## 1
Amino acid sequence: MLEIKNLHARVADDETEILRGVDLTVQAGEVAAIMGPNGSGKSTLSYILAGRSDYEVTEGDILYNGESILEMDPAERAAAGVFLAFQYPLEIPGVATMTFLKTALNSQRKARGEGELTTPDLMRRVKAAAADLKIDAAMLKRPLNVGFSGGEKKRAEILQMALLEPKLCVMDETDSGLDIDALKIVADGVNALRSPERSFLVITHYQRLLDYIVPDTVHVLYKGRIIKSGDKELALQLENEGYSQIIDEAA
């Protein structure tokens, strides 16, 4: 599904390298977790996968289903099935949540050569997905993320994921700012989307998210490189011991 090969990257117009040779493979159906201290490059990796223009790849490649995506813009990557759930979802005044969902869904369908959804079909899909995430109808009528709580913003992100049905879901610290009840709702929404054809790259600081979204693999990113990989037990080790020992071993 995803193969990252010797990826080096920096902020555009900045000589400071953030990613310094990331190698990572995520198989179809796999849930891979990325953990690491602040400033390790975790969010940068997610932005580059999504195609943000203010980051520059200086070396290496990103293969998605065997093909490089480096020359694809964000819309092309999204249409191909790449989705990024933001750590801090943006507020978009003046754009109703339902309008945004309709536009996003039909734009992707058009890019894939599919017909637009009728309004009744769209409403049925949105209402079913919203009910699973405990999102009420009034929230869908509000401007996207404007005045939403942290939990509401993250549930709106998972709602988009459920409706767009991406193949590669990149989640940038989705647990940030969530209380335990909101975390469980978001995790349940993610787990409902797990399938042999869909992969997840879950970026997080904390083990608690991985109690609910249990990963197949865990990778430690430090100073722009993967320094250790393992199974879900690695996340428990990090929770109990911190990063110091693993960093010392990799030095």
Note: Residues 98 and 215 are 32 Å apart (CA to CA).
## 2
Amino acid sequence: MDCQININIPFSYPHTLPTCYEVGEKKIVSYHHINPDKVGSFCLGTEMEIRYRLLPNYSIGTYCKLIIEYLTIYYYYKKYHIMPVIERSHGEKGILEGYTYLFTTTDSAAVIRLLSTLPIKNKHRNLMCPCGSNKKTKYCHYHELQKISKSQLLSKQANRDLDILKGRNIL
């Protein structure tokens, strides 16, 4: 099945992520991973998940692979009426789900504590991990926190997400 896709790449890319949506005759209909914006852009994941997947160089080719994956999942869903992947909720709940997956925890408060430690520095390695595991950070969440801290784009996204999660009080 053919569909025409438009990708809007902002001048401020990669600080602002592209959006993509179907143009012309719509083939993707009645799908719950289309954003409720004016153009019906594709929901490719939370901004942090997209940024993580675009590392290390934020190439547009990698972004196009995300679109191909999205379309593959859609056509599978359309044919078999089941999702072949674990889904995220939309909005704040989806942001929280993304971080619980990233940090391999089910504790929402631990996510807030972990994000609140950013930026993490080498001197924090031997402190107890903020997740509450009673392990040193270097044996627990140091790798994920350091990866976020090393990238200005990931760090800014984590701070925006932390503000959203704290402000919405969804814990």
Note: The mean pLDDT is 93.
## 3
Amino acid sequence: MKCSVKKFSEMYETVYRDLYRYALCLMKNPQEAEDAVSEAVITAYENIHKLKKEEAFKSWIFTILTNKCKKRLKKALKETPGREEELPEQATAPDYDLAIDVKKAFFVLSEEEQILVGLSVFGGYCSQEIGEMMRLNPNTVRSKRSRALKKMECVLGSYGEDEKERRE
């Protein structure tokens, strides 16, 4: 596909917020998320000629971002062993407890589960689109997403019980 700078920026403008939210979810760090998005955008711009249809831009750039995030996470794990067990710090304001619990529940998921839930929730993709991006059957996507969400629900249930015990 031929694409001008203006056309690329118009397409990017429609997805940049979702890209950042998705990267933040995977990377767990705002600076790392910004770097991953920047790398993905540069790669997308350099390879825009490989995109066949403009309608596929969103899934195409999310696939690039997913790959950039995976690469950065693997590199970070090699540099700092034990990082996979890190969890975000507890917030002091009680209003943020639920958000922190949801974040912790998300990080309990495997990498594949995080990607599935992230693309579904943050990217707004259907199982057919996610299946195409991840080379999975749409039925497999739905069942894996369902299991991942149930896993999060179980984790959230146990966090809720822990919080209840702390208050009593």
Note: Residues 83-95 have pLDDT under 50 and may be disordered.
## 4
Amino acid sequence: MSSAQPFSGRPQDLPVKADLARLRVEYGKAERLAYLGHLDLIATVERCIRRARLPFSIGNGYARRVRIQFSSALPVGASSSCEYFDVRLTERVDAREALRSLRAATPEALAPLRAEYVPGRLPALEAWLDRSSWELACPRLAVGAEDLEEGVRRVRAAGELTYLRGEREKRVDLASTLVGFEAREEGGVVRARVETRVGATASLRPQVLLDAALSALGAPPATGVRVRRTAQLHEESGRLVEPFGPFGNEAPAPLS
């Protein structure tokens, strides 16, 4: 980045959010940050935006926070190669320059990968991205891949999955949230791919599905499982839409 700043770093407060430039950023969350909570993640990204000196807008609330929206929170213990946030800017700066500035201001384990402007009136990211793909690596599983698939079939046949999250009971409708599951064995490790959809009342967590499948088989709980989100998409009229469009905008801005 050149020494001459191409845009101002001073935030302004504009009341009409839809009229502000909406920059969508894709970033990863490395495996070593799998236990970084979502609130800590939000605070870290906000600090990075400030350090990058982007012309961000701030809200009207008491806290006067950066106008930013995130995709759905990752389960604790999961990493990802496809997380997103939308930040509202008071100036439409070059997307490639914004991406370079963000990368220079962000820890490598959360490094931005891609940036593009999207229409301001799109629904909030957390609601709009309603499909996810996951990979599970299970190095110490007591059952094989075929048995694990059978366990998932048994759980799915029940129609509903109930589990405790903290002290609260959660119920997940598997007919609407579990899109697909397949497993294979590779070098002594069972690897599974899970396709999920956001449900009306709750989302399906891959680790919860794995635990339920093992319980259905009478197998002991898994240890050392690594969970990674590999895709987030929007489902619309039977087709899947990428987070960056197509919306009729310019092409995404990957940083070479």
Note: The chain is about 25% helix and 35% strand.
